[in-house]
Amino acid sequence: MKRKNILITGSSGLVGSAAVGYYCQKGNAVEGIDNNMRKVFFGGDGDTTRVRNALVASYRNYHHHSLDIRNEKKLADVFRATRFDLIIHAAGQPSHDWAASAPITDFDINARATLLLLELTRKYSPSAVFIFTSTNKVYGDRPNYLPFVELPSRYELPKDHAFYHGIDETMSVDMTTHSVFGVSKASADFMVQEYGRYFGLATGIFRCGCLTGPAHRGARLHGFLAYLVKCAKEKRLYTVYGYKGKQVRDNLHVQDLVAAFEAFYRKPRVGQVYNMGGGRYSNVSLLEAVSRVEEIGSLTMKTTIADTARTGDHQWYISDTTKFRRHYPEWRQRYGIADIMQELWDMQDVPIV
């Protein structure tokens, strides 16, 4: 197989590091961009230094760039040096709360930097496949207007509802509260679509639900399953924000996401949007997640439930991946919620390369 040149932003993060490992193991030349902004966002809990060091030590075909994706000049230097076959843009500011505290910085990182990467791709690597990790938050709080039924441990939709098997790409993004984070990611999402449809780049947009894996640096403001396990192990108080702890999230293992990226890369399309998450195969409420961790660790967690939910947060979100599975029928999920949580307990904070 011909050696490919691959660029991965956010290369020390959960998604980026998994992609680095996958493509390096296949013998490709991988350039990674990551300046550990996650530590700025989330403090020590978000520090990705160990992951970066593990990647550099493990792969001779990996070259790391500690640069800020907002720096157009330095980004251009990377693009001028190499003609890329695949670009995976996984860098970003991922927190509702942090975005509200610094809206301009959040928009620069999530929206403007994405535009810079797209324009540099169009100029220097126009035949590259460009994959963007978007978010289900582009739908804002629209999912919260669905007719949920309250069950003992979770909210659910009636089984005859059109979205019972998950929310698909037809959900409106208009007339809804997105949060500042949701708006910056939606702006980037639409621009990646436009560079596909208007300029003809092979762009794929993956609107992800909760992503996780053992290398996830979970923090209070982001990465709830990994942070939940961290709190359990370190006997920290874990705070659930709103919805009585019955809010539901689908959780997709990062290795299953990278497998979806690879499927798209092999047969790319132009400006396609895919809802991507654990779906009905892998989902959990916060109350259920706490119970699972307590069972796995044979412990009782210290938890509290705040009355107020985070602005724009979802009461229930399960992704419908039908469109992606129709386009790429070879893709299969390998990790269910039980597998994910056991692995998080066994291997949390161990860099997986």
TrEMBL record:
Domain of life of the native organism: Bacteria
First and last residue of the signal peptide: none
Domain NAD-dependent epimerase/dehydratase: 6-277
Family stated for the protein in its record: Belongs to the NAD(P)-dependent epimerase/dehydratase family.
Name this polypeptide is given: NAD-dependent epimerase
